Each structure stands twice: as structure tokens, then as C-alpha cells.
Amino acid sequence: MKKLMTLAAVVAAQAAVVGVAVAPQLSARALGETYELRVAPLDPIDPFRGAYVTLDYPDLQQDDGSGFDRGIGTMEDGEESGDVFITLVSEGDVWVADEWLRERPSGDQPFLACNDRSWQVECGIDSFFLPQDEAAAMEDVLRDGAIAEVRIDGRGNAALIDVRAP
What are the helix and strand counts (H, E) for the chain? Predict the structure, then answer.
């Protein structure tokens, strides 16, 4: 009986860890509102990691004057790495970055909750996975410019729903 209780506790703990890991994505998918962002390929499909592409969001970048395309970029503010919040404003049919902040924005303006704990700012919407047989066609769509459908909840958690031609 003691072994069964230990096993049940281990299984429950593992389920809780998985729940915490996917909670932001689930929250965005279930409770978020849909926003459309311009997207381009940053890194082509990697045959060693499967059918996915690393995405670039040109309208979310800060201009650092380098002329290099580095994905969303980095937060060069002299602060320790940590949370970054990118507020969004509507520009026609798509949404673009307004401000990059270290403090969570207040008010009704939509925003992305990101972090810069690695070499660039990550918002959880930078990889798009798809079946192997659709990979080549998606590369063509991305090369010509595409629109990402992203769901964002009230806490800034984001989930990439779809990528399509404009």
C-alpha cells in the first residue's frame, strides 16, 4: 500500500509540473483574443529538429541601428535580464509594437509578456511546427511575407495559432 501511495504522489507531482509548464499557452489559447502580426522566416526548417521554422516578427523589433535581423531582438537598457513587456497598437489589419517595458502595463492595451533571459527576447511565439509534408509549402508562404494569428490573454501570454498568406 505504501508503494502505491508513493507512486500516486510521484504521478501527481509530475502532472502538476506539466500543468505549470503549459499553463501560459493553454491560458492564451482558451482565454485570449486573436491578433494578427506580420511574420517572416528567421531560420529555415531544420531537418534535424523536424518540420518547424523559427519566426521573425519585424513589427515587434526595436531598431538598434545594427542593420542585422535578430528576431525580436534584445532589451538593451542596462538592466538585468528578466521580464519584458511589448505593448501593441493596431496598424491597419495588423498589430505592431508600441513600447518595450520592464514593468507590466496597466490598462486595456494588449501586450506580450516576454523575457530576455537568453540571447534574445522570447515571447513564446517564435517557432511554428507543422507536418513534414506541409513544410516546403510553408517556406514559400513565409518567404513572400505572411500573417501570424496569435492569441494573447489578459496577462500577455501568447500562443501561435496559425501562419498564412496575407
Answer: 2, 8
DSSP notation for 98-157: EEEESSPP-SS--EEEEE-SSSS-B-S-SEEE--GGGHHHHHHHHHT-EEEEEEE-TT--
Q: What end-to-end distance do the CA atoms of the chain give, in Å?
A: 60
pTM of structure: 0.75
Asked whether the beta carbons of 128 and 120 are under 8 A apart, the reply is no
Q: How far apart are CA 166 and CA 92, in angstroms?
A: 13
Starting at the edge strand found earlier in the chain, the sheet holding 158-164 runs 127-129, 52-56, 33-43, 146-152, 158-164
Give the model's confidence band at 165: pLDDT under 50 very low, under 70 low, under 90 confident, else very high: confident
Secondary structure of residue 85 in the 3-state scheme: strand
CA nearest 123: which of 55, 26, 62, 65? 55
Does pLDDT of 67 surpass 50?
A: no
